[in-house]
Amino acid sequence: MRLHAWLAGAWAGVLWFFTFGVAWNLFRLFPRERAGEVTTALFPCYFAAAIVLGGAATLALIPRFRTSRGVRLAVALQLFAVAALAATALILQPAMAAHAPGTPGFARLHGASMALNLFSLLAVPAASLLVVERRKEGRNEG
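The chain above was modelled as a monomer; its predicted structure follows.
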């Protein structure tokens, strides 16, 4: 479980730091167009890191999959979070590139991208709490 804790922590850290540290500050400090260009250039590394860490964190829970409903739910949440990030990277981002910023098509795709990122931002800590609760239950039983 320690490996999962490290991987999930790193995964959550990447998600939260990029979203609320990097992207938020880029859009706060630079003109919208320039901030968008820089953010778009950083997306491949962001998504690659998040997907790899998310996949590894999920795999780290597999040996404990049968131990509790909480762990199974954590695995499901993490799989959905990885899928949301992968869909954003592989489907939404390329589709957004076909639209000019500020157009309705871009806005719709950007909104979907933000919603999937928000889901991942919340799913990763929620999954970790489920695993922590399982560990506490195990200590209380023994």
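Residues 2-136 form one domain.
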